[in-house]
From TrEMBL:
GO terms for molecular function: metal ion binding; stearoyl-[ACP] desaturase activity. CDD domains: Acyl_ACP_Desat. GO terms for cellular component: cytosol. The lineage of its organism: Bacteria, Bacillati, Actinomycetota, Actinomycetes, Mycobacteriales. This is Acyl-ACP desaturase.
Length: 317
């Protein structure tokens, strides 16, 4: 019979792993400063200081890049909600507390540098962006009732998903400065993912069935933390159609690599509950793969129609 542990018991048993990974993170993470990634020379005053207010023609970003930058930035803005969620499930003592503080400080850099870049380059409407920030942070992030294992499983997948999204957004901006900036942000997110992934890996050794149940719960209900923001659905469609983050990337670049690292389908220590969950997970992944294929087929058809319309318009011009 496999053990079912309380959150407090899990925290105590996993603390040595947390401590090792805090040390690994501090030894690996590179210091960087947001001001070094912003083209300040492109900035100028807005009307309140005698300059010119924003106009859509000032943005060099495509609609897709704007949607991705806004979505990613508003997601980073909601840091106080994420801090609260992590702090409530972890502890502010010992290695757990050190990690919560360090993670929060590093994540805050991301919203600072992205906002500075967008305001200085006039990539998006700063008034609309600020209004959206106020609304999104007021709503906050509420994942519902979750256990410690569900929380740490979720952030493992979420941090990696965010890494992929930031990296591809940087490329979509068509600006080497934005690409460099978001590559730096993505590198942070990858290190954060590794911390959480290693905690879950340790939990699988301590309580395999219980941990797999948490992983399965997270995967089948997964939503990005920005899902509650205004225009999220519209922006998510643009982001997916633009190849920045879609179901295929979610499956191939996020879910499957993490499951392979945890050796979910190779482990031999699951009990009856875990074995059934593993079978359910296999079915879920097959369904996700089918949905990804359908989306890609629909996207290809839409792009082909768009190309044909462009050809017809060019011929009639």
């Amino acid at each position: 019979m496999t053990r079912e542990l309380t959150d407090l018991q899990l925290l105590r048993e996993l603390e040595p792993i947390a401590e090792d990974n805090v040390h690994r993170h501090l030894a690996t993470a590179k210091d960087w400063h947001p001001h070094d990634y912003v083209p300040w020379g492109e900035g100028r005053n807005f009307a309140a200081l005698g300059g010119t207010d924003w106009d859509p023609a000032q943005s060099a970003l495509s609609d897709t890049a704007q949607a991705a930058m806004i979505t990613n930035l508003l997601t980073e803005d909601n840091l106080p909600s994420y801090h609260r969620e992590i702090a409530e499930h972890f502890s502010l003592d010992g290695a757990w507390g050190t990690w919560v503080g360090r993670w929060t400080a590093e994540e805050n850099k991301h919203s600072v540098v992205m906002r500075d870049y967008l305001v200085v380059t006039r990539g998006v409407d700063p008034v609309a962006l600020e209004n959206a920030r106020m609304a999104h942070m007021t709503t906050g992030f509420d994942p519902g009732s979750t256990s410690m294992l569900e929380s740490v499983s979720y952030v493992t997948f979420q941090e990696l998903a965010t890494r992929v999204s930031h990296r591809n957004t940087g490329k979509a901006c068509g600006d080497p400065i934005a690409d460099r900036m978001l590559a730096r942000v993505a590198a942070d997110e990858n290190l954060h993912m590794m911390f959480y992934r290693n905690i879950v890996d340790g939990a699988l050794d301590i309580a395999p069935d219980q941990t797999l149940a948490a992983i399965m719960s997270v995967l089948t209900r997964f939503r990005m933390p920005g899902a509650s923001m205004a225009n999220f659905r519209r922006n998510a469609v643009l982001i997916a159609k633009g190849g920045i983050y879609d179901l295929r990337q979610h499956l191939d670049d996020v879910v499957l690599p993490v499951l392979r690292k945890w050796r979910v389908f190779e482990r031999t220590d699951f009990g009856g509950r875990g074995e059934q969950l593993r079978e359910d997970l296999d079915v879920f992944l097959a369904d996700l793969r089918t949905k990804a294929e359908r989306f890609e087929e629909a996207r290809d058809r839409a792009l082909a129609r768009q190309a044909r319309r462009g050809e017809h318009a060019g011929a009639s011009a």
